[in-house]
Amino acid sequence: MPVIHVSGTDVHYSSSGSGPGLALIHGTSMSAESNFGHLLAAFTDRYTVITPDYAGSGETTGPADELTLDLLVEQMVAAIEHAATGPVDLMGFSLGAVVAAALAARRPDLVRRLVLVAGWSASDDPRMQLVLHTWAASLSAGADLASGVGPLLAFSPAFLSGLGHDGLAQLRTVEPEPGTLRQIDVDRDVDIRDELHRITAATLVVGCTQDQLVPVRHVRALHSAIPNSRYAEIDSGHVVFFEQPTELTSLVRAFLDADQPAD
Fold first, then answer.
1. What domains are there in the chain, each with its CATH number?
2. pLDDT tens-digit readout, 86-95
């Protein structure tokens, strides 16, 4: 796994497939592997898929002081520049969508097409602040509480019920990434509203209708602020990559492949 050094941190990424570059940016408490690993085959037939971990996830290290959105963007820029030649397609999920949107606004030369899944532009909504505070407090309280709160925020009621007792018990054994609390601190401070008008890449924004972590109205607001962006919704909780993987990948592939030459 390649490693690059960025502002005193070590950034790890993987690359697979062949063709134009497609970089995937994961969400809070996840790594690139846990977020996207099961879906890589849906893209590697036509794209070179670049999957970096940002600070606090996988083996990527964080700064000695406060973790910031600016550093996460800097880490992802460095990974893309190291792994690809020329602009890439870029997809981000949750906090990864925030990072991807900020990156596209600040470095339009690096982004050909942009997909933002379950992202948002500002965290000043009191309910969102309460949700993020509760999530962080559950992690500080210990694994038993955190392993219950996390799934309740991440998935729709029907999906969780459908797992059954055994499936839900197995889900509760999944441990968050070590830097999750610091990543949640970044979530709490998001405000990229003044940057979104600078995005020039063709953009698809995807909301999840049953999202309890980032309610779909925030995703709609993100779409409204990005010039000429397209919008779609999927009936899912927040972690749509697991609830509705086929619907999501089909939607994203249709967007990415629209102007690709036929094989």
1. 3-257 (3.40.50.1820)
2. 899 999 999 9
